[in-house]
Amino acid sequence: MAQTVDEAFSQMSLYSDEVLYVLIKLPANAVMAAAGVVAEWREAFCCLIIDKDEVTLLLPERAFETFAERLPGHLVAKVRYRLITFDIPLDLSMIGFMARVSSALAEANVSILPYAAYTRDHIFVHADAFDAAWTTLQQLQNI
Q: What contacts 24+ positions apart, CB below 8 Å, involve 42-45?
């Protein structure tokens, strides 16, 4: 039987790592530089997204400070982010999990950057909205 959204919320834990993250935009031709940084950093959490127009990195601020000179043409978002992981393996066929998360956080006036790994979902929130996001998500677990 497929996992339901209610089951996932009732069984999950929330996880955060107390780290500040930076969102970095690179030109589309900076794939190798970005991949090299991710390979060399080797600590959770980091993310590399490549699309037709740009390369995006989400890195701990400390990693960016270490590797900034190796990221040509980078543009860094002014906002610093915090990680929240939904620490439960999620069924890949589940419908509505992130919809519930994003709706609750939108009502709490919290902007999110959602990321999905193979079995776990993650969101990043502005560092100054972290407490509001955490509280809102804890309330979702108790519904």
A: 44/17, 45/17, 45/19, 45/21, 45/83, 45/85, 45/122
- Contact predicate 101/122, CB 8 Å: no
Q: Which residues contact 53 (CB under 8 A, 6 or more apart)?
A: 28
Residues in the chain: 143
Structural domains of the chain, with CATH = 5-18+82-141 (3.30.2130.10), 21-76 (3.30.70)
Q: Is the pTM of this model over 0.85?
A: yes
Write the DSSP string, 26-66. Answer: EEGGGHHHHHHHHHHH--S--EEEE-SSEEEEEEEHHHHHH
Tokens of residue 25, six digits: 């935009």
pLDDT tens string 129-140: 999 999 999 998
Please say whether the beta carbons of 71 and 34 come within 8 A: yes
Number of other residues whose CB lies within 10 A of the CB of residue 95: 10
**pLDDT < 50: residue spans in the chain:** none
